[in-house]
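In line with agreed milestones, work has continued on tokenised descriptions of protein folds. One protein thus recorded appears below exactly as we store it:

>
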Amino acid sequence: MMDLSSPTVGHRIRQAAIGLGSWLVVCLMVFPGMSLAGVIEDDIGALRKDMQEMKKDLAEIKKLLQGALKKGPPVKTTATVGFTGRPMLGQADAPVTIIEFSDYQCPYCKRFTLQVFPQLKRDYIDTGKVRYVFRDFPLTQIHPQAAKAHESAHCAGEQDRYWDMHDVLFQNQKDLSLPALSRNAEAIGLDVATFESCLERGQHAAAIQQDIQDGAKAGVRGTPSFIIGKSGTGDTITGTLIRGAQAFAKFQQVIEAVQKPLPAKDGKSPAAKP
């Protein structure tokens, strides 16, 4: 309902009244024989029409605001996801596992890979503290070259050059066309004919699609996204879901929190002695 006592509505009504009065004076001066009652009736009709339009506009605004204020589904902050058979860096028995869902054509993924990942690798992966797993999540609706780029990394993996292709793809992100992928293969020393045959057959397309499905089920909505959790002994982890190309400090915070032992039921550390 419109509040007629509000300053904004009151001001508009006063302005309309002043304008109406001025217009009546001019009309009576120019057209002395004009019926004042007729003029007033016509203008009241016009004013009513304007008020109806205002009410429609206010109703539409109210509808939009109500839609914006509706609560959506809760945002997931934890996720469970597997990693069997996926490309991996670090020691298999590292206490913490990070699983990245990424897109080779995504500029935010490139920023993370070039700016944050090197420090993460130096401080945690190379020191045996973190096992790092890469999973594919090409956003083909907005990145049409991404799918084949992801396939090219796996084709390079067949020649033990997965991570070399991974790095080259992000470094040369502006051109991920098929000819460019072949040039990348040659640059990292692959048998180009074997590489192109693998790419042409789409040999790894199904595995990439499985990654997309698993990521979506885990709550991945964009790239890059990460799940960080205790490694455990199985082929899945449950951990904290991080979205976006966060700063190194964010990963450090979550990794350190995962490494901390859980308090015992009596409030003491499991390592504490009575």
In short: Confidence is low (pLDDT under 50) at residues 1-6.
